[in-house]
Fold:
Amino acid sequence: DTGVSQNPRHKITKRGQNVTFRCDPISEHNRLYWYRQTLGQGPEFLTYFQNEAQLEKSRLLSDRFSAERPKGSFSTLEIQRTEQGDSAMYLCASSLGSGLSYEQYFGPGTRLTVT
Amino acid sequence: RKEVEQDPGPFNVPEGATVAFNCTYSNSASQSFFWYRQDCRKEPKLLMSVYSSGNEDGRFTAQLNRASQYISLLIRDSKLSDSATYLCVAPDGYNKLIFGAGTRLAVHP
Structure:
């Protein structure tokens, strides 16, 4: 399967714990995006990378959230001191950096439940 | 006003029906638009891209009206498998996608 992959698919954690999610984009895509989706809403943009550079972050991304893409390939999203309000589906997407660059392809997501 | 607004539905239609969804957007600088399909507890999947006035792909037709900042999706000859949530998307600048909350479609026998 050459699509976007995410791990883990599900994560249950207790409030106050740290969690880390991983995203592997489509191999030839140099742009990688993180979104968050809650029930009944569309995905909301969190941040994006072009290669290893993080070029934009949403105001939704509080200081507890950090994302990295150290070698311009896979990315990690870490949430520190999780809160119940962090419960959501975290989606990763990737796209080419030229041509039809707006077309983003999503991974299956990581569903986070904070108890 | 939300940046991308959609009627949440649900639209309940019989098989074979034609159904249309509407979407309005507020960012007049958006150049291209998308419709994504999302099944329950799954990721959004790209259904159609709209770069000019419209696009057609089989039973699906998307129309764009820049003057009114309005996008539509028409589904002809609905199938049971079309049941899903349809997300309207307008990019903000060149990078991030702004999603509507989605329109639910239920196709029944």
Summary: Chain A has a mean pLDDT of 92. Chain A touches chain B at residues 31, 33, 35, 40-45, 48, 55-56, 58, 91, 93, 100-109, 111 (CB under 8 Å).
